[in-house]
Amino acid sequence: MSTMLGMGAAFMPMQFCTAPKKEEAAADAVVSKSKLDSFGIQLYSVKEDMGADAQATIRSLAGYGYKQLEGFDGGKGILWGMQPAEFKTLMSESGATMVSSHTNVYENLDAQAEQAAEVGMKYLICPWIGAQKTLDDYKKRAEEFNQIGEKLKSHGLRFAYHNHDYSFIPQEGGLGQDVLMDNTDPALVDFEMDIYWVHVANINPAEYLAKYPGRFRLCHIKDAEAGTGDPHQRGVLVGKGEIPFADLIKQSKGLGMEYFIVEQERFPTGTPMEAAAANATYLSALEY
């Protein structure tokens, strides 16, 4: 009987043994795609609105779908003139979290760190050091970053540096950004990749992320229109340019990226708040 069963299986009609149809495979591929659970916005994108009414602006942004916020010091401090208790109430009521803030980390760092820690921030970020004259100058900045990272660690915070294009412009046979990466302690210093500035500096963001896995924990989602020209004038709404964000998000999450933060600095049409709403709609629907 076992022999007959084996022979029966051998002559089973082919439709029971064929591979899945292409349509079924495609359906499985669609099901396997993911969406961002949460994403943020750099409040500098709506700086005028923040200056006019910070609380109302934050509530509106949360309503657009931004669950995470990254601040900047607009002259009123990293909490925009609010006391920590007031700020935490705003975050609780809006459903958002302030994960980080750009600030001058070379002044009043302890006081800023105390405020940041009290409201639950994870990072204080240096947004700018300017183009350095030599690679050795970049090495000196890296040493300073280690010291800043050590101080913030004592407050339970992380330190990160946000790039522009200048650190990706070749000089003396190297890149200033490489010097910063290679001479900072991963236990003390993380990095925030501004994808736009890497891209317009003619560096492949995906390749650079892979070169330094685990070092970039935050990124700025900012798109660039196709072509060349003034790098300050190529900004467009996310999804309207040439940067492949779906691929970048998928890859970067496998390399340690945790925070995806929209930043818009150029507004070809509409207001900054309209741009913020449009960018949130795009990211909410983006599959990777």
UniProtKB/TrEMBL annotation:
GO molecular function: isomerase activity
Domain Xylose isomerase-like TIM barrel: 106-278
Domain of life: Bacteria
One Pfam short name: AP_endonuc_2
Keyword entries, A-Z: Isomerase
Gene3D superfamilies associated with the record: Divalent-metal-dependent TIM barrel enzymes
Designated name of the protein: Sugar phosphate isomerase/epimerase
Organism: Algoriphagus jejuensis
